[in-house]
Amino acid sequence: MPDRADLKRHADLVDRTATRLGIDLEDAALSGRLAFDDIAEMVMRCTNCSNPEDCAHWLNRDEVRADAPPVYCCNANLLAGLKEVSA
């Protein structure tokens, strides 16, 4: 089980990735497009990622928006579905 710091780090990566894609996870959960448990599962999947440093570098670039998450993203399919619905 990841420790608290690791969970916070990956929660931040998930949230920032969603934001980079133009997805507001809180809004998606409040509107019923996504369950709060799904967000927790996204964070847990992210903790199993082998590329969190690459993800952080991708997020730290100057881009404001992206069309898709990195190909190695464990949550790419779910995020793509949310992006499609929010577009």
How would you sum up this structure in a few lines?
By secondary structure, the protein is mostly helical. The chain is built from 5 helices and no strands.
Protein architecture, described:
With 87 residues, the chain is an all-alpha fold. 63% of the residues lie in helices and 0% in strands. It has helices spanning 4-20, 25-30, 36-47, 52-60, 76-86. Helix 1 (4-20) packs across helix 3 (36-47) and helix 1 (4-20) packs across helix 4 (52-60). It is globular. The model has no long low-confidence stretch (mean pLDDT 93).
Sketch the topology as an H/E string, one letter per element.
HHHHH
Largest sheet: none
| Unreliable stretches | none
Strand content: under 5%
Give the averaged pLDDT, no decimals: 93
- 3D shape: globular
Distance between the termini: 35 Å
Q: What does the oligomeric state look like here?
A: single chain
| Derived structural class | mainly alpha
Number of strands: 0
> Into which percent range does the helicity of residues fall?
55-70%
Number of H/I helices: 5
Rg (CA only): 12 Å
